[in-house]
Specification:
This protein has 208 residues and is α+β, with helices and mostly antiparallel strands. It has 5 helices and 11 strands, in the order βαββββαβαβαββββα. Helix 2 (85-98) crosses helix 5 (194-205). The longest helix has 14 residues, at 85-98.
């Protein structure tokens, strides 16, 4: 069963070839009408997307989005065995963070869509390659699905790989920009330029 929310739609039919499986996530688009404005200079609030949640962190502690009130948050859904989308996006965010003042309150959160394999230790090991500032989050399948639905994220197990240990996940590759009150202010597709993300963060930081 494809796990998705009403905020996303598919642009192309799913193919059983690996090429289509790996490209599928980049072809999912968000329905932008849920934002009160699409002017990137005016980062309006996405009224129907987002909300507080509590998950188990890569530091083996339960944390909530509300714990980061007063900070700008970059939120991304992925999994540690991801061969392309996740490493590419995390590397981009690493570059984004490198161009920001390190003393500014910006927190990165990575929520796994593969909680069966991504325990706190696995998340911590994987994410340490990219940035010390990023926190991995996991939980039960039900908890992850609930958070994904809150944020209009979609994911599914790749049906072309019949393995309990080496399967892949198909998932949306959006980065969510969240303000100091915990509200989604922008949703960046995978092909978003670094400068656009940096400008969005700086706009929210200017209000802190």
């Amino acid at each position: 069963m494809f796990r998705t929310s009403k905020y996303f739609k598919l642009r192309a039919l799913f193919s059983l070839t690996m090429l289509a499986v790996l490209s599928f996530c980049s072809n999912i688009s968000i329905i932008h009408a849920h934002s009160t404005s699409q002017d990137s200079k005016n980062l309006e609030i996405y009224q129907d997307i987002g909300g507080n949640f509590t998950l188990l962190s890569s530091n083996n502690q339960n944390i909530s989005l509300n714990d980061f009130q007063g900070k700008v948050v970059l939120l991304f859904f992925g999994f540690t065995a991801c061969p392309d989308t996740c490493p590419i996006t995390l590397s981009k965010l690493q570059q984004v963070m490198a161009k920001l003042d390190p003393h500014k309150p910006v927190q990165q959160l990575f929520i796994t869509v593969d909680p069966k394999r991504d325990n706190p230790e696995q998340l911590k090991s994987f994410l340490s390659t990219f940035n010390f500032n990023i926190i991995g989050l996991t939980g039960t399948e039900e908890e992850i699905l609930h958070v994904a639905e809150l944020y209009g994220s979609a994911y599914m197990k790749n049906p072309t790989i019949n393995s309990e240990t080496s399967y892949l996940m198909i998932h949306t590759g959006y980065v969510y920009l969240i303000d100091k009150q915990g509200q989604v202010r922008e949703i960046y597709p995978q092909d978003t330029e670094e400068i656009q993300i940096i400008e969005g963060i700086r706009q929210l930081l200017a209000d802190i």
